[in-house]
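Researcher: I'm preparing a figure for a lab meeting and need a structural model of a single chain. I don't have an experimental structure, so a prediction will have to do for now. The sequence is pasted below. Please return the structure as tokens so I can convert it later.
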Amino acid sequence: MQHRVVGTTLPVLELSLEAGEEVISTHGELGWMSPNVTMHQTTGAGHGLMGALKRAAGGAGVLLTQYRAEGAPGLVAFAAHLPGQILEVAVDDGPYLVTRHGWLCATPQVVPSIGFQQRFSAGLFGGEGFVLERLEGSGTAWVELAGETVSYDLAPGQTLLVHPGHVGLFEARVSFQITLIKGIANRFFGGDGYFLAKLTGPGKIWLQSTPLPILASALAPYLGSILGGR
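Model: Understood. Here is the structure written out token by token.
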């Protein structure tokens, strides 16, 4: 399987499959494909039905879509939803946790599941709450992060406090928890505190500069006035 990322601001991931090769993704991620690529629904490798039910409990689809090149090489492409970057992740190196909707597609032996979920009383993430997907197994996955990507290699015991919306991708060996800083009003979450993600090394993390919830919040006042005027 060969791949390339085309474009810069709104990139496209293009996968060239040999006959018989497959790739999986969540439902609705397809951009385009050659006519000999077939689509099937699957529960995915590894956890089977239990993994599918776990994904559903976290708000993701029960089934994954499998793309397979039949009889000849084929092409399948996935387009970014927002301006940003598409990263290649070697899942063989260890499990990863990725922001909700960040996982784009993967080779068939990658096992996606819900790795973390926490609901807040109000605001930024809506009814979904804050969700991280876990990618494990073997093979390669591709992840979409919004805006610019900044990465850090955290030393053992080194901690970074991050707004949850900016958490993009990190190695599962990185310790992760949501912390509440008291006394700071936060219009995104409400209440009397400010929620931050606490990431502690060792391990590598990738942060995204412009996640969709923050972008939507920044645009909301202008959209309201425009719609009101109409």
